[in-house]
Amino acid sequence: MPKSQAAPDHRYGPFLRLLEAQLQEQRREHEEEVEALKNEVDAMKEEMEKQQQAFLQTLQLSPEAQVEFGLQQEITRLTNENLVWSEHSLSSDLKPQAVSATVPCLPAYILYMCIRHADYINDDQKVHSLLTSTINGIKKVLKVGLRFSHLGVEMV
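RE: above sequence
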């Protein structure tokens, strides 16, 4: 047998088996990753179909019912996000400062949506009451913060 057609040198056998095992492991990991991505795409398609159905149903409602439905959808979305945050905080023991740093506009957004809804339904008394309560609540928080700062205690 000529030298170029000779069987692989027995010294390379373990090395070739190792390379083959690594290649098979990479192939398996790749197939798992592709499968996971396919599942994610399917889940996203399903969610998109649900949203399209909800949108089509919303178009058939009166303007007032559309606003109400939109608020309900947003409350549901925020509730689901809150549940995810709650589960995360239970598992990682998050401090309030960390949560407020990651979602700093959530209280303002909720307040804005409430005012917008009260304004949309043209309830001046509700808007006035909501704003008055909000301002008083903010003043109370600021007063407590000032009391602590006079005592030399820094609020975190």
